[in-house]
Design a protein that fits this description.
alpha+beta, five-stranded antiparallel beta sheet, 5 strands
Length: about 80
Amino acid sequence: MKLFVSNLSFNTDSEDLTRIFEVYGRVVSANVMEDKFTNRSRGFGFVQMDNNETALLAIKELHNTKFKGQTIVVNRAAING
C-alpha cells in the first residue's frame, strides 16, 4: 500500500521516513519530494509498505503525530486510473 505523508519538516529526508515507518512493517520505498531547482524538501512524500495491514497500522499510529516539530498527516495515497 502506498501512503501519502504531508506537513513534513523541511529537514525531513527519505531515510527519516523509512525509519519512522519501518517500526510498523517492511518499507518498500520512502521518498520525500524535492524542488527540482533547489533540491529542498517540498514538505511531503510517499511511503510504499509491503503489507496493507501494517500500512493501515502506520496510518493509525502516525497520523496527526509530531515529527521534527511538525504535526504530520498520513493517508492512503490516491491511485489514478
